[in-house]
Amino acid sequence: MLSKHLLVAWAFFDLCLMGAGILSLVLSFVWQEDNLLRNLTYSTFDLNIGRILGIVLLATSLLSVFLIILRGKRPLVIVNWLLLLDAVAILSVATFIWMYTLHERINYHAVFGRQSNATKIKVQDVLQCCGYFNATDEVAFGGNFCPDQAAAIVANSFCVTPIVAFADSVLNNVFSTVYGFMAIVIGLFLSTMCIMKKRQEAERFERIDAKQGGRGLV
């Protein structure tokens, strides 16, 4: 007979995994809304990866509920294989984001350079800067803060610092949260292993009991 505490622990971690999947899905759609600095920070590729991770975690959570009610060892083995795949996905996504933050100044130079002049002008007005590394680097003239080259030189304020500061804060929170999903996966994996062990013990005693003609061990 499985301990109620063990089943509660397993259910808790499974609900947490479901919550992690929902969180990834919801934020991937919410962050797609029009927001100047956020759209500069994330690409469509990044948001699609977030959706895929959310679907994977949510699918694992729902499948594990179905598999846990089945008898035998094999369904639990499948659950743990799914959790191992989740762990690989989580570590891959979080590490990709973390590695991107190691070279943010250069990476966002390329991102800023790909923007249209209209978008650059909006960014420059919001952040009150002209150009990326200097007043002539990827600068777009227009708007209120940087209407021409003379204003750019006088301003002596460049976009690299505020862009990287915003992106660094957001991305650090994202990869820390995604790495945190690993605690949920590990907890659910260990809970499943414990249930598997308890079921093996119960099956062993049932076989012993059957050999004794159903009289029990005493």
TrEMBL record:
It comes from the Eukaryota. This is Tetraspanin. Keywords: Membrane, Transmembrane, Transmembrane helix. The chain crosses the membrane at residues 7-31, 51-70, 77-100, 178-196.
